[in-house]
Design brief:
Chain lengths: ~120, ~120
Amino acid sequence: AQKITQTQPGMFVQEKEAVTLDCTYDTSDQSYGLFWYKQPSSGEMIFLIYQGSYDEQNATEGRYSLNFQKARKSANLVISASQLGDSAMYFCAMREDLSGNTGKLIFGQGTTLQVKP
Amino acid sequence: DAMVIQNPRYQVTQFGKPVTLSCSQTLNHNVMYWYQQKSSQAPKLLFHYYDKDFNNEADTPDNFQSRRPNTSFCFLDIRSPGLGDAAMYLCATSRETSGRGNEQFFGPGTRLTVL
């Protein structure tokens, strides 16, 4: 079974509108972290936001927020007021803090976001 | 200021010719990771160092080796590159392997082409 599932291979959004990128995960660890990274065409992985499994509040970082629903094992990324520079590949990733404790990130397959002017 | 630096950004090598990719960091992080990302795929961890302790992923081919001579530098050696090794290689660092505030910071990557 896939540990991280991103069901949207590609998404379009109009500039200045909000968009939600879906992510579901599967783990038996009680302690884990969920991450979103942005990867522009240049290839660099840019850290966007982190949510810990014990965090009660949804994480927010500027225009990025994470809609964390623990019981449903989902960690959707919400980008508000989309900008042209947001066009990129977005990866959801999980770090299981107990299984082996290597810090290894397990990535989903990614969602390509295109922002239309 | 660059925090995780990878050199070169683009590397072309010939089939079977050894190649070394370099990563350095200015964050003084304990952990350094190497990921392989093939075209249109998710990154996949090859191995990581916690300080001087090397940790290999079970499915990493023997063709891939790594060295970490000091805290700042980590190298990825591909002994005999095959066409299937063409990929983006991403180096990442983190302070610790778990817990809040220990997110991984990535370098810009080295795109390897094998002719």
